[in-house]
Design brief:
The chain is mostly beta strands. Helices cover 8% and strands 48% of the residues. The strands form ten sheets. It has a 22-stranded antiparallel barrel. A five-stranded mixed β-sheet has the order 10-15-16-13-14. Strand 24 and strand 25 (531-554) form a beta hairpin. The longest helix has 14 residues, at 2-15. The protein is globular and about 110 Å long.
């Protein structure tokens, strides 16, 4: 009767039926905060002691836990285990109703009913192990064993394995199917994440990040690694469809730490890191540079620039890499205080992350304050609050791209080693004036460091609160609300001392606000000990508002003001401002059903209505379903011992992407100015983009996988095969000039991703010496299925003077981002590059361009080894990628732009074409040598990297339960110490442009450093 009335209550809430009639049908019962445990019992009444219970408390490896607490639930009576983990506790006369609570710092508490027992031995599970068992999913959580979808988890220890300015960097190599690419090595630099490949041309391909239930905008740079409890990565449609129109690229659920009811705990973490340039490029020294310049002069019929005596007298010269790169520290400190009692738990903490870049003047500082409170108001009501306030300050010196030394990185590599950084009067030397053959574009890189600055200051607030109501144990009604607010300001100033500058200042301010309201109701219960049912329904509202304001000015009498007074500019710029708003309204539902703990079913549905889309297309519908079979729970599996876990699962679902700006479907008017007669008039006119009648991008995904555990799960293997197809791709399409518009956005085609993911865990030794191995490998194949009218789309135009062309293509039947250009065919008799005439028409034209490389890897992988012995810990973490190509745009001007006085790699001098060396790597050194976008600049980007090595010692603090210092750990680690690669430039882990259509590009990027860290973790 109770089950039936509970279901009736759930239905009544949605249909407006009064719950008063139900009250008399419910007898009083003990209510829990959320989903009830199967064996929940009321707090016992404590009687006079009439006996005792004894036993031992151990961890999962069989080691005793000295100082563990054993307490009678509902009373103050308790005991502490001795050095061997033994305890004895007096119990009341009516011991059948007594419940003992076992707890120990760093472990999950456990309750045991005494009954008729006289001895109880208990095994406690560590916090990290418990996180492995309980997995957070969209709008809820479940046991790992009950998952039907493809979900990967990264635990707290892996997240904090090495210092990172962005918590997402810690996912690199940790989860199958998740590719993390650090765009560059600048402090606070961007990170690109791809889960099972790229799905969109127009939209963002990064996953949706959800922080403590709040869908966050962009990358979660506001979080400190030490504040994270776990990260779950939802990969297949069964897991992501509950997020509907934002789930196509996968979902990353970030759960931060909360307080506990086991007393006050103080955690302190501190680390100091030293960063250095991983490896310098082997450039020509002063003597070699002079030799190359003379060779160029001779080949071009000019007099030598340097005499033989001058060449022999030149030494090493200026090493410009030493001039701009430095050793740089990272200081990372965090402190948190948590605690509480049975009804209230709290946490408050602060952290400071301060990173100086290996290029002087580049740095990144983040200061955060976190607070959480969870309070049980009564047996029926509970309130939760979580907030993070962060201040981010980023100083940029990562001037990238460019050619002939007109960017900082380009100038550092191209500057003549015969030039000095400073003139005789100690001012910055103008390198273009040192020699007549040096390009006028060449700028001393010290100008970018000392006389130009870009500082980005951001204040980020993320706060959410929730009220939970349990009218009956089986039902939880939850109403939550949250806000994300980001205020940022970018100050850019180029001083009067910068070459050819009279002072230039600009300021851009922006504000982003997102408000969220979620309302869900959950019914969870077990029927007849076989039917496990969990039903979720709800609706959500989220709006997004962006504002910006920009101003600028040129011509300052002094550098005193910089950006503090734009009114001091001789020529003020025209101020600009902007505003955008969009709304997303959603209805969602999910049913999880398990039968006999063997057969699992999941079905979900979400309907999203977005203000961004056209009338008639504003609503998108995203269903999913999944099944799983726990084969190991069948009776025919009980007689064998080899297979401890075997689960087969399959899923199908549809997700979407909001791949357009808020007003892309509207015919907007834009301001401008025009002259009539002698007067200047402002006007409003349509833009150059024709608004279209747009539909949602939708991604359909099928997944088939299994989880296999052997020898009591000492060996665990996971495997998944997936196939996902994205239809109605949104892309910008060019229009004929007769339309009056130059472009439009349209649904133009589809993309397919298919792949295999494998993960393996092995507990090699589990005695006093523990050794575990885990690794993963992912194979993904990306293919464009269809495009608008079947026409290919050329992308990624570069202009580095010597080469100006597109070097990527999107074409049906080919991977996204494929490199497009000419194939080289040796050299002519005069030492110029010969290109293949593929269509045999006797000319080298656009028709001879072809596929010259693929930035998508054949596979990528991660491998971790963890060893512990008597308090010592040694971790080795390797990560790599295989089969991906890199378009080395840096090498275009860095190795082929002769006659401009540019320094180049040493091999240009040692291996260029001469009549005696016709099979050389580089052509004849002459101004007449030409280059095209060709396979010359496509390099193998495969690499294997020792991402992190860590040696730690955990001090043995016996009976720490009653002492001030509970735990103490010191460690030393190294990051990026070894890299095995054939790539010729600084680093193969590069993605200058940060997008899928521009994947695998290196254009004078800020290099990723190697680093050394020492740190301490203490708990009080």
């Amino acid at each position: 009767m109770k089950k039936i009335s509970a279901l009736f209550f759930l239905v009544s809430i949605f249909f407006g039926i009064s719950t008063d009639a139900l009250a008399e049908n419910h007898s009083p019962s003990y209510l829990q905060d959320t989903v009830p445990q199967r064996d929940s019992i009321p707090p016992p009444a404590i009687a006079q002691a009439d006996g005792s219970i004894s036993g031992i408390v151990k961890d999962t490896d069989g080691n005793p836990l000295p100082g563990a607490t054993v307490q009678i639930k509902g009373s103050e009576k308790g005991a502490i285990t001795d050095d061997s983990g033994n305890y004895t506790i007096a119990i009341p006369a009516d011991q059948k109703g007594v419940v003992l609570v076992f707890s120990f710092l760093g472990f999950q508490p456990k309750e045991m009913r005494v009954g008729n027992q006289t001895s109880i031995d208990v095994t406690l599970i560590s916090d990290d192990q418990e996180l492995d068992e309980v997995v957070v999913i969209g709008y809820g959580s479940t046991r790992r064993a009950d998952l039907t979808g493809a979900v990967a988890q990264v635990n707290r220890e892996e997240i904090n394995a090495f210092p990172a300015s962005n918590v997402i960097q810690s996912l690199n190599g940790r989860a199958a199917g998740v590719q993390v690419i650090q765009n560059n090595g600048a402090p606070g630099g961007g990170v690109s994440v791809r889960i099972r490949g790229a799905n969109s041309i127009q939209g963002d391909n990064d996953p949706l990040y959800v922080i403590d239930g709040f869908p966050f905008s962009g990358n979660p740079t506001n979080l400190n690694n030490a504040d994270i409890a776990s990260i779950e990565i939802l990969k297949d449609a069964s897991a992501t469809a509950i997020y509907g129109s934002r789930g196509a690229n996968g979902v990353v659920l970030i759960t931060t730490k909360n307080g506990s009811g086991s007393g006050t705990v103080v955690e302190f973490d501190a680390a100091y890191t030293v960063q250095t340039l991983r490896e310098k490029l082997k450039l020509m020294n002063g003597r070699q540079y002079a030799q190359l310049m003379n060779i160029q002069a001779e080949n071009d019929g000019l007099s030598p620039y340097f005499t033989e005596a001058e060449v022999n007298g030149f030494g090493e010269g200026t090493d410009w890499q030493n001039e701009i790169f430095q050793q740089a520290p990272i200081k990372n400190t965090s402190l948190s205080i948590s605690g509480g009692g049975e009804n209230t738990q709290f946490l408050i903490g602060g952290s400071a992350f301060q990173q100086d870049g290996i290029i002087e003047g580049s740095d990144y500082d983040r200061y955060s304050i976190r607070s959480t409170i969870n309070h049980k108001i009564s047996d029926k009501f509970k309130v939760d609050f979580n907030s993070t306030m962060s201040k981010l300050v980023t100083a940029r010196r990562d001037s990238e791209g460019g050619s002939r030394g007109n960017s900082m990185i380009g100038a550092a590599l191209g500057a003549s080693p015969l030039s000095s950084p400073y003139s005789m009067d100690e001012t910055i030397n103008n390198l273009a004036d040192d020699f007549p053959f040096v390009s006028p574009d060449m700028i001393n890189p010290l100008y970018f460091i000392n006389e130009q600055s870009t500082v980005i200051t951001a204040n980020v607030i993320l706060a959410n609160a929730a009220l939970s109501y349990n009218p009956i144990p089986e039902i939880t009604i939850k109403v939550s609300g949250g806000i994300e607010n980001r205020d940022d300001r970018t100050d850019t100033y180029r001083s009067r001392e910068f070459i050819n500058s009279n002072g230039n200042a600009s300021i851009t301010t922006g504000q982003y606000i997102s408000r969220l309201n979620e309302n869900t109701i959950t019914y969870a219960d077990v029927f007849n000990e076989k039917h496990d049912l969990n039903v979720l329904a709800g609706f959500t509202y989220q709006d997004f508002t962006t504002k910006f304001l920009a101003g600028s000015g040129t011509g300052f009498l002094s550098d005193l003001y910089e950006t503090d007074n734009l009114g001091a500019a001789e020529t003020p710029g025209i101020p600009t401002s902007g505003y955008a708003n969009s709304v997303l309204l959603s209805y969602l539902g999910r049913v999880n059903y398990g039968f006999a703990n063997k057969y699992l079913f999941t079905a979900s549905f979400r309907a999203d209505g977005s203000s961004r889309y056209s009338e008639g297309n504003k609503w998108g519908y995203f269903p999913s379903g999944a099944i799983a079979w726990k084969v190991s729970e069948e009776d025919f599996m009980k007689s064998q011992e080899a297979i401890s876990t075997l689960k087969i699962r399959s899923s199908w679902g549809v997700t979407g992407s909001q791949a357009i700006d808020p007003y892309a479907t509207l015919n907007r008017l834009f301001p401008g100015y025009t002259v009539f007669g002698d007067e200047l008039y402002n006007f409003l006119a349509p833009g150059s983009t024709l608004p279209g009648d747009l539909k949602w991008e939708t991604t359909t995904q099928f997944d088939l996988g299994f989880d296999l555990g052997l020898l009591q799960d000492r060996i665990v293997l996971g495997a998944d095969y997936y196939l996902k197809t994205t239809d109605d791709l949104l892309s910008t399409v060019r229009l004929p000039s007769s339309f009056g518009y130059t472009t439009t956005i349209d649904n133009v085609g589809s993309i397919e991703n298919r792949g295999i993911e494998l993960s393996l865990f092995a507990q090699v030794f589990s005695s006093e010496f523990r050794w575990s191995l885990d690794g993963n490998i992912s194979f993904n194949r990306n293919k464009v299925l269809s495009l608008n009218d079947g026409q290919p789309i050329l992308t990624n135009f570069i202009n580095v003077i010597t080469v100006a062309d597109n070097f990527s293509i999107m074409e049906e039947g080919k991977p996204l981002g494929q490199f497009w250009g000419y194939q080289e065919d040796g050299y002519t008799d005069t030492g110029n590059i010969r290109f293949k005439d593929l269509n045999n028409d006797g000319e080298i034209t656009e028709a001879d361009k072809t596929y010259i490389g693929d930035p998508n890897p054949d596979f990528f992988y991660g491998f971790n080894s963890n060893m512990t012995y008597k308090g010592f810990q040694l971790d080795l973490f390797f990560q790599g990628s295989q089969g991906n190509d890199i378009m080395n745009v840096s090498a275009v001007s860095g190795t082929m732009d002769y006659g401009q006085g540019l320094n180049m790699p040493e091999e240009v001098l040692l291996d260029h074409w001469t009549p005696q060396n016709t099979d050389a790597k580089y052509p004849r050194i002459s101004r007449s040598s030409t280059a095209r976008v060709s396979d010359r600049f496509v390099e193998d980007g495969s690499y294997l990297r020792l991402k992190n090595i860590l040696l730690a010692y955990n001090f043995p603090l016996k009976n720490a339960q009653g002492k001030f210092l509970k735990s103490l750990r010191v460690y030393a680690s190294g990051q990026n110490l070894l890299t095995f690669t054939k790539y010729s430039w600084w680093d193969p882990e590069v993605n200058s442009k940060g997008g899928d259509n521009r994947l695998g590009i290196d254009h004078f990027s800020y290099p990723i450093p190697k680093s050394y860290t020492i740190g301490i973790n203490a708990t009080f």
